[in-house]
């Protein structure tokens, strides 16, 4: 009884900022941007109001998945320094509130997407939410160091959703964009997990650096960078994008490969000595923004 009263009292301290924090707005920025680029790169025009609604639904769906992720992982978030101040582990919100918020937001986003655009886009959005929550969060994350490899598919759906919202179908280009993000996700997150390895170890999360060590992780980063670069450049020789995109993708991918090789050459075990890993992690975010921005610019120049 005392525990329930304490939980209810803590829940009263939650405000709108805590609900925003549940949606992981920093992560959502990249999700929304890639979804927007998928929509803008599509060959079919879509009314601006419907386009805005589609992107809003992608944002709401991503926020719902993030909220449900934090609902399920409140226990391990409390054990990691970088997540301990989130609303649930900090005691500002109870888990039931987070669950209801996530489920409600997710259902609303899918229904609104279906009504405003088409049900294919809504179905892909629903799959992306369920994949992130059930496959990555519930099934993979606590069980296997391959969690981020398979689970990376969840973050690769937005450009496919944006494209489907505009066209009502899914063709080769959005599938290549999906593949690009899918291959990008392991190097991006493994670079981060190398210098926050102690956090994952303390929480018992079997991320690759914890299970296999830094050397194997660095090898895997370099390995995954190659098919990522191939997927990034592929739309150009396949005739799905022009030279503006192709040159930008090739240059950005070459820079990514160079940084990945610097990570591979590093032998440091202390986070303070992992400057190559931190550079790669920071650049990986810029890389994806730049690649997708170049695609939209290329499409507009060719129009």
From TrEMBL:
Please name the pathway. Answer: Porphyrin-containing compound metabolism; heme O biosynthesis; heme O from protoheme: step 1/1
Set out the biological process GO terms recorded for this chain's protein: heme O biosynthetic process
- Indicate whether Kinase appears among the record's keywords: no
> What EC number(s) is this enzyme filed under?
2.5.1.141
Where does it primarily localize?
Answer: membrane
Q: How does it sit in the membrane?
A: Multi-pass membrane protein
Q: What InterPro entries has UniProt attached to this entry?
A: Protohaem_IX_farnesylTrfase (IPR006369), UbiA_prenyltransferase (IPR000537), UbiA_prenylTrfase_CS (IPR030470), UbiA_sf (IPR044878)
For this protein, the parts annotated as crossing the membrane are 27-46, 52-72, 93-113, 119-140, 147-166, 172-192, 221-238, 244-268, 280-302
Give the reactions, separated by semicolons, that this protein catalyses.
Answer: heme b + (2E,6E)-farnesyl diphosphate + H2O = Fe(II)-heme o + diphosphate
Q: Which cellular compartments is it found in?
A: Cell membrane
GO terms for cellular component: plasma membrane
- Which Gene Ontology molecular function entries are recorded, alphabetically? protoheme IX farnesyltransferase activity
Query: Which CDD domains does the protein's record reference?
Result: PT_UbiA_Cox10
Tell me any Pfam family this protein matches. Answer: UbiA
Q: Which UniProt keywords apply?
A: Cell membrane, Heme biosynthesis, Membrane, Transferase, Transmembrane, Transmembrane helix
Misc remark for this entry? Carbon 2 of the heme B porphyrin ring is defined according to the Fischer nomenclature.
**PANTHER family, sorted:** 4-HYDROXYBENZOATE SOLANESYLTRANSFERASE (PTHR43448:SF7), PROTOHEME IX FARNESYLTRANSFERASE, MITOCHONDRIAL (PTHR43448)
**Cited function:** Converts heme B (protoheme IX) to heme O by substitution of the vinyl group on carbon 2 of heme B porphyrin ring with a hydroxyethyl farnesyl side group.
Output the HAMAP family linked to this UniProt entry: CyoE_CtaB
Q: What family is this?
A: Belongs to the UbiA prenyltransferase family. Protoheme IX farnesyltransferase subfamily.
Name this polypeptide is given: Protoheme IX farnesyltransferase
Tell me the organism.
Allosphingosinicella humi
Q: Which gene encodes it?
A: ctaB
